[in-house]
Design goal:
Layout (H helix, E strand, L loop, with lengths): L15 H10 L2 H10 L4 E2 H7 L5 H13 L3 E6 L5 E6 L1 H5 L1 H26 L2
Antiparallel strand pairs: 1-3, 2-3
Length: 123
């Protein structure tokens, strides 16, 4: 038994719940959307413009999952045309510090990782 194996067994479901949550949070679009919404409430079109490379379909799917999981709040205004705004919930905001820590780790280790990749490719 490895040192970390027990952490996936916390819920007694073989880690299924934990893996599902981590799959959603570690999705590249999730972190970009959460980081973008950290600036404040935004409309769908603003998110499309501020997140390079994301398709409208992928943004829609990811926002739905974030809303389902309680990280994002969606507000629909009864206007013509309808106006929809997205904002981080308290739980969504609590994801910012660990995400920044992970990004900081990546930035700090870029030279080592790039050197390792080059060494691997040249083998």
């Amino acid at each position: 038994m490895s040192e970390y194996e027990h952490t996936c067994m916390i819920r007694g479901d073989g880690g299924k719940t934990l893996r599902a949550i981590l799959d959603q949070i570690c999705n590249k679009w999730t972190l970009l959307i959460v980081a973008t919404l950290d600036q404040g409430t935004l409309r769908f079109g603003d998110l499309v413009q501020q997140i390079p490379g994301i398709s409208q379909r992928m943004l829609t799917l990811t926002l739905r999952n974030l809303e389902r999981d309680g990280l994002v709040s969606r507000t629909v205004f009864a206007e013509v045309p309808p106006r929809v705004e997205y904002t981080l919930t308290a739980v969504g905001k609590s994801l910012i510090p660990p995400a920044l820590a992970l990004a900081g780790w990546a930035i700090e280790h870029v030279p080592h990782i790039e050197a390792s990749r080059e060494a691997y490719q040249s083998r």
